[in-house]
Write a structure and sequence with these properties.
mainly alpha, about 90 residues
Length: about 90
């Protein structure tokens, strides 16, 4: 199945790292980044061959999870660790 045109080509490590850093810098909301990642996960064949990118996408899909009404499950420290897992992309 072709990737829908609005998603474009599979994200690179650098693109995913940018999304994570945008979370840390509050340039993008958790909900926006989570929705972006979830769109890749919902595809029958996301065509993401890099296992490091795929793991990061799976993590980002949960970036907006909450443990309470006021508190998110994941912290900026988690996001930084995820970015570090991508290496110097």
């Amino acid at each position: 199945m072709p990737v829908p045109s609005d998603l474009g080509a599979a994200p690179s490590r650098a693109e995913v790292r940018e999304r994570i850093l945008a979370l840390i810098g509050s340039d993008e909301s958790r909900e926006v980044v989570s929705d972006w990642a979830a769109r890749w996960i919902r595809l029958p064949d996301p065509n993401i061959e890099d296992p490091v990118v795929w793991t990061a996408i799976q993590r980002l899909a949960g970036a907006d999870l909450r443990i309470s009404k006021e508190k998110y499950l994941h912290t900026d420290e988690d996001f930084m660790a995820w970015a570090n897992d991508l290496g110097d992309s």
